[in-house]
């Protein structure tokens, strides 16, 4: 969906702060309704995308846990399961605050998500021997979605 120039400027301002501009921009454009959104609208998109991704990842990790027998990998996945539960709950709470126009409450709820999510990335590099992280692509996207939500939410005047 093509965005009007004001919306495009806001999307660019947010996405230039992300580790991957293209993913950020594409995510906003795919969810844009009517080609126009202020920071509140963009925050709504980012929050919903982050919550959806965290929820599906939490389910995926639970599925992986049922099929893994390697104890080291199982322990790493338990860290990820806990991490994604925190992220999912943080965005669930953030979305409730957002719906009540409590943007400070939303940001306070969501600010715990980056550290929680990072634990799912770092556990795979800190556990000897280093394990292949089955969530590396998901973690990268989740990291960007969390940052998009926090940066756009912080831009609400």
Automatic annotation (TrEMBL):
Pfam family, any one: PMEI
Keywords, ordered alphabetically: Disulfide bond, Signal
Superkingdom to which the source organism belongs: Eukaryota
Keyword Disulfide bond: yes
Domain Pectinesterase inhibitor: 6-152
GO molecular function, one term: pectinesterase inhibitor activity
Keyword Zinc-finger applies: no
InterPro entries: Invertase/methylesterase_inhib, PCW_Enzyme_Inhibitor, Pectinesterase_inhib_dom, PMEI_plant
SUPFAM superfamilies: Plant invertase/pectin methylesterase inhibitor
TM region(s), chain numbering: none
Coiled coil: none
Family named by the database record: Belongs to the PMEI family.
NCBIfam families found in the cross-reference section: PME_inhib
Name assigned to this protein: Invertase inhibitor
Species: Cucumis melo var. makuwa
Organism taxonomic ancestry: Eukaryota, Viridiplantae, Streptophyta, Embryophyta, Tracheophyta
């Amino acid at each position: 969906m093509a965005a009007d120039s004001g919306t495009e400027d806001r999307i660019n301002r947010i996405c230039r702060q992300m580790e991957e501009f293209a993913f950020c921009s594409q995510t906003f454009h795919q969810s844009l309704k009517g080609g126009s959104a202020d920071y509140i609208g963009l925050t709504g998109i980012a929050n919903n995308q982050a919550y959806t991704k965290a929820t599906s990842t939490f389910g995926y990790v639970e599925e992986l846990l049922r099929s893994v027998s390697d104890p080291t990998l199982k322990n790493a996945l338990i860290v990820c399961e806990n991490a994604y539960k925190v992220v999912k709950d943080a965005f669930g709470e953030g979305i409730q605050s957002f719906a009540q126009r409590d943007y400070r409450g939303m940001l306070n709820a969501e600010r715990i998500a980056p550290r929680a999510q990072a634990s799912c990335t770092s556990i795979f590099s800190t556990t000897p021997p280093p394990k292949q992280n089955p969530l590396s692509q998901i973690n990268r996207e989740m990291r960007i979605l969390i940052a998009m939500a926090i940066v756009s939410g912080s831009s609400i005047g």
